[in-house]
Each structure stands twice: as C-alpha cells, then as structure tokens.
Amino acid sequence: MAALKKANVVYVRLFGPQLPRVLGAYYINSHGLHDVVKDQRDNLTAYKRGKGGRGSFSGVVATVFGASGFLGRYVVNRLGKIGSQVICPYRGDPYFMKDLKLGGDLGQVLFLPFNLTDEDSIRKCMKYSNVVINLIGRDWETKTFKYNDVHVEGARRLARIARECGVERFIHMSHLNAQPEPPQIYVKGGSQFLKSKYLGELAVREEFPDATIFRPADIFGLEDRFIRYYANAWRRAHGRMPLWKKGEQTIKRPVFCFNVAEGIINSLNESKAIGNSYDCVGPNGYLLSDLIDYFYRCLRWKNFRRTYISPIFKLKVMYMSYAPSTPILTLDKLDREHVSDVLQDYETLEDLGVKLTKIEDRAVYELKPYRLYGYYEERLGEFADPEPPPVLSS
C-alpha cells in the first residue's frame, strides 16, 4: 500500500472515480475529515459514497443528544439531507422519536435508549460516531434534573466520554447570554439557567478543548418558545402584556431555527470551527417592546397595551412554576427573558456561510393559528400587512 501511495498517487487523484472498488476506497479516504466511519477503515461499506443527498453516505455518523427537542428535529433533518447516519438517543417513550425517521434515508436514522447519568448507555450511543452534538437542555428544573445536573455535569459527562471514545467533533449548545453573574431582575442572584449554561461551557472546554460551542439567542420557528410564548394567554394578564419596564430597555436578536441548524452542519466542514465559539443571532436587533407590539399586530389585536409587572402577576408566575408537566411561566424564565442580547467577541453564523432570516419574514405565518377571529374568512387584501418593528442600529 505504501508503494501504491508513492508510485501511483497522481494516477489515483486523476482517475479515482473510475478506479476499482479497492483503489477507489483509497482515493476517497485521502479526501476530507469524515470520509470513513471511525475504526471502520477495513470496511468498504463505511466509506463515503454517492453524489450527495439523502441517498448517499457522507461519512458522517452523528449522535445527536436532545434530538427530540425543538432544535433537534431540524439538526437531524439537515444531517439526513446530506446523507449522514444519525443516532438519536432517547430517555422517554420511543414513539416520541418516530417522526425523526423521515429525516434520513431508510435505515440511516437509528434510536437508542440512554440516561444522562448512565455512562455505559452514553458510550453505546457514540461508540461508532465521529460527530457528537449535544442539544440537551432544560427550561425549568425538576426533582430529578436540576439546571446543574443537565447543563454542567451532563455536558461534562458527554464531552469526557466523547473524548474517550475518540470522537472527532463535539458540538455543544449553550446560550448567548450565558455568564457567571447574570443581571438580577426578579430572581435573587440572577437566572440560574444562564449561570449553569456558562459553567457548562467551561466544563465542555475542560473535557474536550476542540469542541465547537454555539451560543444562540432566542430561537423562533415552528413550535418555538419565543413567538408562541408571548402569544400564549397565560403570559398575558387581563388582555395586557406585563413586562419589566414595559420591555423598553431590553434588546432582543432572535434567530431562526433553520439558520442555527444550518450553521451546525456547515461547521462540520470548517476546520476553523474546531475549538471555536459562535454567537447565533438574527440579522437585526429590536426592543422587546417593539417585538411584542408587532406580534399583536400580527394577531390583529386592537387597543393592545403593555404594562409593568405587578406583584399579583409575579404571584401567578410563582404558582405556575409548580405545574406538574410543562410550566409555561417560571420566575427564572421571567428573569432571563428581560436580559438584553449582547454579542461577545466571537464569530457569528454569517461566518459559517449562513444567510440569516428576519423575524418579520416568519412571524405572520407562525402566529396565524393564534390570530383573533381565526375562523373568519377574510377577502384578499381585506387586512393590510402589519407594520414591521423598528430595527435598532448596530
């Protein structure tokens, strides 16, 4: 094989696509990072093949932790679109994962049970993977999993095991406003969610120095927790929207879910992304007050008003924090939603070749199910398009 490498290297490079299978495998193996599955170099079926697309094999075998979440479905779909094999670990019922099978070709999307505290199950999930993506996170704490258990210790465990398993690329999802001392608005000591996300970044860097970290702002899209959160009736109080200082001192830079997923996939082919961090923000910044007004123009509310947060509303939030399954309101969520999005000295999604989507291009569609008098059959042109929110100068 050494003689082949020295004597016929020019021949292989020029005529590699027309070579027999053995020589073609050698040709393919000399190009790219993920051309062959880890520890499978003697297996011809593990080599990159095809012209690209779902019916091909890109050489990427990715384990996506948190695939059943909001962002996970878009990442799995993007991976499947380029012909990757995707392992989707799950903790609950496998029927919650079945829709992800459509993301890839037949047999390319696999499911394995795991638990974040069980190292053996984690190793099994990433045993043959060359890419591991950690999208696990919690918006609220439970008796079983606190913020620290998920965002810090869980992330540390995944990064350490990935390094021990010889994984080439580890991608971790953090938050744009992750910081050691978040601003204190309603929660003593600031948002523990943001604090744990910051500590999680440090833990991942300690265990896997070459990890790529994405720090997204609020993500909007289908079934999101940003646009729909403010459209929810439980977030309002007597038809008004309670906000800290009426939302006039909070800056938001929401980013589209497709853009974040595209950035993650693009980073796999970028050597500069190794060990780098990326701030994931949309193309524009807005005042939270202007965004809320715009959302309710899309909902066709008349005489909509924003108000200050009253003690009664805070009491409502405290009680709703103890909801048994999915609390819509928590004090920590109320605290961090009023923290302004501030960019750090990191690269952004545009540096990964992502064309960003403005929230004005999606909000009308996303809010249509919540529109006032939704069953009214309007005539074409009966309602004017809502006026977009003012854009802050950068």
Brief rundown of the structure:
By secondary structure, the chain is α/β, with parallel strands linked by helices. The protein contains 13 helices and 14 strands. Strand 1, helix 4 and strand 2 (about 85-90) form a beta-alpha-beta unit.
Describe the fold and architecture.
This protein is an alpha/beta fold. It is built from 13 helices and 14 strands. It has helices spanning 2-7, 9-15, 21-29, 72-81, 119-125, 147-164, 192-207, 227-231, 257-267, 288-298, 311-320, 331-336, 363-366; strands at 61-65, 85-90, 109-113, 131-134, 169-173, 212-216, 219-220, 241-243, 251-252, 255-256, 277-280, 286-287, 306-308, 347-348. The chain has an 8-stranded parallel β-sheet with strand order 3-2-1-4-5-6-11-14, with helices on both faces. A two-stranded parallel ribbon has the order 7-10. A two-stranded parallel ribbon has the order 8-13. Helix 4 (72-81) crosses helix 9 (257-267) and helix 6 runs parallel beside helix 7. Residues 1-33 have low confidence and may be disordered.
